[in-house]
Write a structure and sequence with these properties.
seven-stranded parallel β-sheet; 11 helices; alpha/beta; binds nicotinamide-adenine-dinucleotide; globular; about 325 residues; two-stranded parallel sheet; single chain
Length: about 325
């Protein structure tokens, strides 16, 4: 199978590619604009594989996409390219609208024209897998039930609104044009190669550099954490076994308050890399003004993917976080 991955130089896309190249016979064509968020170093272990190909392409560029589809003739698309950082979307939403909405539209249209021209057998095998977020559902109050695939969309930030728009576009391309799509909505990821602007790597890097650990508001916001390699396996499982037109929630079943995440990072670092002054890293925690529109709680009900596709996360938050911290310490030594 030839899989066109968009955004494969990003945090999750690179984990998806590493997993597929290492564990399957499938071939990958990775297209990525190489924004500030990308890191081709995350693919260094697999770039020499003859099953892997990279092209620098912006998904907003229709001509380049047509050429890529014509040249490589993919059997499936895994669409991960996006602007992904909520704080940046609040400061400057334009790129989010461009890439996440217009870019997805562009990719859908090029995929549709390509798919419509395929012969019957290839046409029935083709899949367009759109990778999205739990943030499209908005937030939950303390006692609300977890998000299911039926939860109505209620995005809070320009980022989540742009992802919600892209989900709607993808779903409508199935309903209107019968493009064989699958959508996954996933909770917060963490793990190796995550950009330093996100909570967990930011806290680890600040701690190791003896900088303050800025926690938004009171730190009581709850996120559902999934180790990135578990997500990569889930995505491949959905691509292979998911049903056309369906949505699958993916999550770690690990709901933790942000402040607890930061304290756990400090406690693991206290053991693995004690500070020179022998104090705990938790002394560096500092509460800062909350993010506008900050969602209170996310929690994913993952029974559909567990029951129908037999996938469940392997890492607990404790084991995944420890691996992530060790990986980050190695980057600094
Ligand atoms: P990321 O920001 O680390 O990577 C995004 C990649 O997309 C980068 O390599 C970037 O260069 C590329 N890109 C951006 N604009 C592009 C464009 N116009 N054309 C081509 N490439 C472009 O993001 P991530 O954390 O790896 O997230 C990947 C996907 O998963 C996103 O769609 C995101 O919404 C979704 N998601 C992320 C999380 C999370 O916790 N990180 C959780 C659920 C869903």
């Amino acid at each position: 199978m030839k899989i066109l991955v968009t955004g494969g130089a990003g945090f999750i896309g690179s984990a998806v590619i590493r997993n597929i190249i290492k564990n399957t016979e499938d071939r990958i064509i990775n297209i990525d604009k190489l924004t500030y968020a990308s890191n081709l170093g995350s693919l260094k272990d697999i770039t020499s594989s003859d099953k892997y190909m990279f092209k620098k392409v912006d998904i907003c560029n229709e001509k380049d996409l047509v050429e890529i589809f014509g040249e490589y003739k993919p059997d499936a698309v895994m669409h991960l390219a996006a602007e992904s950082h909520v704080d940046r979307s609040i400061d400057d939403p334009k790129e989010f609208i461009k890439t996440n909405i217009f870019g997805t539209f562009n990719l859908l249209e090029v995929s549709r024209h390509y798919w419509e021209a395929l012969d019957k057998k290839l046409k029935s095998k083709f899949r367009f897998h759109h990778i999205s977020t739990d943030e499209v559902f908005g937030d939950l109050q303390k006692d609300d039930k977890k998000f299911t695939e039926q939860t109505p969309y209620k995005p809070s930030s320009p980022y989540s609104a742009s992802k919600a728009s892209s989900d709607h576009l993808v779903r409508s391309w199935n309903r209107t044009y019968e493009l064989p799509i699958i959508i996954t909505n996933c909770s917060n990821n963490y793990g190796p190669y995550q950009h330093d602007e996100k909570l967990i790597p930011l806290m680890i890097s600040n701690a190791l550099n003896e900088k303050k650990l800025p926690v938004y508001g009171n730190g009581e916001q709850i996120r559902d954490w999934l180790y990135v390699e578990d997500h990569a396996e889930a995505l491949y499982c959905v691509l292979k076994n998911g049903e056309i037109g369906q949505t699958y929630n993916i999550g770690g079943d690990n709901q933790v308050k942000n402040i607890e995440v930061v304290k756990e990072i400090c406690s693991v670092l206290d053991t693995l890399k004690p500070r020179l002054n022998n104090k705990s890293y938790s002394d560096l925690i500092s509460f800062v003004k909350d993010r506008p529109g900050h969602d209170i709680r996310y929690a994913m009900n993952i029974s559909k993917i567990q029951e129908e596709l037999n996938w469940k996360p392997k890492e607990s938050f404790k084991t995944g976080l420890k691996k992530t911290i060790i990986w980050n310490i190695e980057q600094y030594s």
